[in-house]
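cache lookup: miss for this entity combination. No prior model stored, computing from scratch. Input as submitted by user K.M.:
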Amino acid sequence: MRVFSIGLVISGIHLSMPLLFAAYGGLVSERSGVINIALEGMMLFGAFLGVAVTFWTGSPWLGLAAGVGLGILLGALHGLLSITVRADQIVSATAINLLALGVTAALIPTIWGQPGVSPTVARIPPVVLPGLSDLPLVGEIFAELSILDYVGFLMVPVAFYVLYRTPLGLRLRACGEVPEAAASTGVDVIRTRYLAVLTSGALAALGGVYLSLVQVGLFQRGMTQGRGFIALAAMIFGKWRPLPILAASLLLGFADAFQFRAQAVGLPLPHDLLLALPYLVALVALATFIGRATAPGAIGKPYVKD
Amino acid sequence: MSAPKDPGNGRLRSAGPPDSALLPATTWSGRLTDALGGPLRNARNFALVLVAALVAGIPLLYAAGSDPLNGYGALFEGSIGSKQALAETLVSMMPLLLGGLAVAVAFQAGLFNIGVEGQLLMGGLVAGTIGAKLDLPAGIHVLVAVAGAMLAGGLWALIPALLKAFRGVHEVITTIMLNYVAFSVSRYLVKPGGLLVSRTQPSATELVAPSAGLPRIWSPTRLHAGIFIVVVAVGFMWYLVFRTSLGYRFRVVGRNPVAARFHGISPPRAIVQAMLVSGAFAGLAGANEVLGLHHRYFDQFSPGYGFDAIGVALLGSLNPIGVAAAAFFFGMLRSGSVLLQAVAGVSRDMISAFSGLVVGFAAAVTLVDRILGRRRRMRTGEGLPSPAGVTTQEGAPV
C-alpha cells in the first residue's frame, strides 16, 4: 500500500466533503452579512442526531433528514440571537458551539448506555452507477461515492449560479454589503438574512451528517474535532467565493487524508504530530494569502430597520 | 468615517486622554462592554444570566435522564454541602478563575481568545517539565516553574496575536487551530518513548520535585496553596486593567481602535501585549493545576477549563471581581457534577452545555438592556440613538 494512490483520492474526497458543505454554509450566511462561527456546533449536532435517529429507526435516510432539520433549527437560533436580538454574533455562535460539545457528549451515555462513543449504525451506502464504476482507474473512485458526494459536487455550480445569476443571490449579496441600500430598493434584509442563516445551518449539519453517516457510521464525543473551524478557514482562504472555496476545501481535506494514509501505511513520521497537519495547513493558508478587502462589507453588523 | 451620532461623542474632541468609557464603541467587544456596563448592572446581569441558564438547564437535565430537582439538589450538595465538597469547589474554581481572567483581559482589548485551553496545556506541560527535570532550591523552583509556564502560555498566544496584529487573521480561528496543535504536540511529547514522558507512567511527565510543588493547606482536602496565587492574580488583574496605562490602552483599543490611533495608541501593539498577558494567565492556570493538584503533567489533565473560562469571563462581566464570583459558581458546577453523575446519572459533560447556556444568555443580555434603555429614553424624552454610529469594525472578518 502506498501513500499516493487511488485510495488517497477517495479518502481525500471523503474528508473534503464535510468541509465543503460547512464552508458553503458559512459562505451563504456571511454573504448575507451574518458571521457564522457556529458551523462547528451545527456540524456536531447534525452528526449526533443523524446517528441517534438512524439508531432508533434503522434508516440512515431518516437520520440524514433529522440531522439537517436540527441544523435548520440551530440556524434559526443563531438567527434569533444575531439578527433579532442583535447580540454579538461571535459570542452567540460560541454559545452554540459549547452547547453542542456538552449536550451531544452528555447524551451519549443516556442513549447508548456507554460513554464516549455510540455503537455502529447503518451508513449511507455508495451509489453504484453501472458503467461508471467499471471504468479503469477512476471506476474505483466512483464505486465509493455516495449520493451526498454527488450532491456536494453539484452544490458548487448551483451555489455559483444562485449567488451570481439570480435576483435572490443579488439580494443576498446586497444584504451583506450594504443592507441599507438593499432595504431602500425594497429588499427585506431581516428575512433574507434569516433565509441565509437557515440554509447555513442545514448545510453545516449536512457536513456533520456526512462525517457520521457516510464516513464512519457512528457518533463519537466531539467527533468534528474543529472541522467547522477548518471549514471557516477554507471559506476565508477562498475569499468568500464558491470556486476558490472548493479548491480550499479540497486542499485541507487532502491534507487530512494524507495524514491518515501516512499513518495507515506506517510512514516513519510521528503520528501525533501529523494529526496537527490540517490545522497547520489552515493556519499557514490564513497567514499567507488572506486579503482584507474581500469580506462582505456589512459582515458582523446587526441591521436595524429604520 | 461618518460622524457617530452618539450623544457622548462630543467628548472625543476634548483635550487630553479620553476616558475610555466615554468613547463611542465601534467594535463588537466595545458594544459588549457597553452592554455589560457598571457594577450594579453587572450584578443584575450576573443574576439574570444565572437564573436563565439554570432554568434552561432543566430540560437538559431531563433529557439526560434525571429529575431536574434531584439533579440540582445533587449539584448543590456535592459542591458546598460539606467541608470536603467546598474544598473541591475551591480547587475547581482556581483554573477556571485564572482562565476566566485570561479570557477577560483579551476581551477588554477586543480579542476573543478561545485558545485558553491550548495555552493552559502548554503552561502545564512546561511547569511539569521544569518541576520534574530541574534541581533548584525550594521556593525558587516553584517560581521558575510558574514563570516558565506563564512564558509558554504567552508564547503560544503570541502566534495568533502576531497573525491578528500584522496579517489581519481573526483570532477566533487561529486560537482554535492552535488548540488542536497543542493537543497534538503535548500528546506527542508524553507518548511512550516521547521526549518528556515518565519512566513509570504513560502519557505523563515524572512527578514534580517537592521543591516545585504547592503544598496542601487544608488537610485532609486537596485545597492547595495555589489559592493564594489566585487571590493575588485577581487583585493584580484588576489593578492592571483599571489602574495602569497598559490596561487603559487595552480598553481603548478594545472599544474603539480608530480613536485609539488618534490618541497615539498603536492597536497592533496593544493586541500583542493583551494576548501575551492573556496567554500568561492561561499558562499560570495550567501551572497551578500541575504543581498544586496533580504534581505531574498528564494528558487531558484539563477537562475543558479553557472553554468553561469563556462562560466564566462573560458571566463575570469581564471584571476581575465578577470573574471571581463566576468562577466560584462554575467551580460549584464542576465539583457538584461528580455527585450529579453518581446520584442523578447525568454525565459530567453536561457542564460544558451549561457553559454554553451561560455564554448564550450573556450574549442575549444586550436585549434586556436595549429594552430597559428604550423605556428610560422614552421617559426622559431623549431620542433613540441611531445605531448608525456603529460603523467601523476593525480587524479581520470571520
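stored under new cache key. The radius of gyration of chain B is 22 Å.
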